[in-house]
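Dear colleague,

Thank you for sharing your sequence with our group. We've completed the structure prediction you requested, and as agreed, I am returning the results in plain text so they can be pasted directly into your records. Please verify that the sequence below matches your submission; if there's any discrepancy, let me know and we will rerun it promptly.
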Amino acid sequence: MKKTKIIFWVVTGILALMLGIGSVYDAISAPEAVEHVTRIGYPAYIVPFLGVAKILGLIAILVPGYPRIKEWAYAGIFYDLLGAFYSHIAFGDGPDMWAGFIIGFVLIAVSYIYYHKLQRQTFATV
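Please find the predicted structure tokens below.
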């Protein structure tokens, strides 16, 4: 259980840092974030909404308990990343842009899998 817990928190912490930093810039509508999103054709008003939504999702994943909210948060973050990945591909950004997305998908998957392993182990010991 200790190994599972360590892997979960390390991977989830990296995920939170990776997505959280960009989310704060989105939430405050930093010029770089607005330029990045409007460059691929989205309106500027979507930037703070996505930033706040990602921050709330990350909080839901990091706070212990609330399993149903966690499931929704994982799904929301996955779909946000998938939509951004698709948008960049459709816009014509090449494979040099894909590495960050692939890392994000791996982090989300590992965090989700280890969250469920931790849940199973916790309920098995009770």
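Summary note from our side: The chain has one domain: 1-124.

Kind regards,
the structure core
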